[in-house]
Specification:
single chain; mainly beta; Porin; twelve-stranded antiparallel barrel; three-stranded antiparallel β-sheet; about 60% strand; disordered N terminus
């Protein structure tokens, strides 16, 4: 009987240790690749994340190299900036240069820890500034200031993950009177860790996301444009690999359904690669 108690105590100790690791280690905190998650940095923490985005739609192709910098203001509040540089091709035309800079902040307003698991929720505010060259061919900027509001929920355990998020993007109007349609983005994500995490060993989580986008029709001087707006759905497999304070996130968005208004090019694919350091 004593031996059984010792074994039980030992297992309980390992569970508690892994739970503490999950909620305290910077490398153990995860967010989806394409969706929005509730993760924030620890107080005083700095995140440096170079990113590569690929987007192919008909004869339009965009490659964007970005740098995301984030600072942990408190244990529940972070703020950051995204600095993009893009290469665009559209038919015979091509252009490259700095894109629209974005500023954002995220606040985690709820967190619940249990043995080996954590649930949390956060809100996001992002402002995309009018800093890219909208007169390039093709344009490198939108010529507008856009605002994104988001709400995210996440559950992380030693083996399973799940996230859900909803975002609303309010687009501005450019000097020519064109206003791209507002967008609603819905993300449902599941994750699976094949082996228990250890701070001293690499940690792998496999992800599968369902990403939905609904866009309103664009307007030109108040009149709706017929060949704009509609709905697209993507199934997005990915991987989140971490070792201590370094992480690699990679995934691809595969279109599975769409209902676009009028005559529009459908998305062929999107892909994303992120290298992330927590300092």
């Amino acid at each position: 009987m004593t031996g059984q108690k010792r074994v039980g105590a030992k297992c309980s100790g390992w569970g508690a240790a892994l739970a503490a690791l999950l909620v305290s280690s910077p490398a153990a905190a995860h967010d989806p690749i394409f969706g929005l998650g509730p993760h924030v940095l620890y107080k005083g923490g700095v995140e440096v994340a170079p990113e590569v985005h690929l987007d192919k739609k008909g004869d339009e192709q965009e490659t964007e190299l970005g740098l995301e910098l984030v600072y942990g203001i408190t244990g529940d509040w972070a703020a950051g900036i995204e600095l993009p540089y893009a290469w665009k091709e559209e038919g015979p035309d091509s252009a490259d240069g700095a894109g629209d800079v974005s500023l954002f902040t995220k606040y985690r307003f709820w967190r619940h820890d249990t043995l080996g698991a954590q649930e949390s929720a956060a809100v996001l505010l992002k402002v995309k500034t009018d800093t890219g060259d909208e007169n390039a061919t093709p344009a490198l900027g939108t010529g507008t200031t856009d605002t994104i509001l988001g709400l995210a929920y996440g559950y992380e355990s030693l083996k399973w993950y799940r996230w859900g998020s909803l975002r609303y993007r309010r687009n501005g109007e450019n000097d020519a009177g064109l206003r791209r349609g507002d967008k609603v983005l819905l993300d449902l994500v599941g994750g699976w860790r094949p082996t228990p995490p250890s701070y001293y060993e690499p940690d792998t989580v496999w992800l599968l996301e369902l990403n939905g986008e609904y866009g309103k029709r664009a307007e030109l001087n108040g009149a709706e444009l017929s060949n704009t707006g509609g709905t697209e759905w993507f199934l997005s497999p990915g991987i989140f690999w971490t070792k201590r304070n370094f992480a690699v996130k990679a995934g691809v968005q595969i279109p599975i359904a769409n209902d676009l208004n009028g005559n529009q090019e459908k998305t062929d694919y999107r892909a994303k690669l992120v290298l992330e350091w927590h300092l």
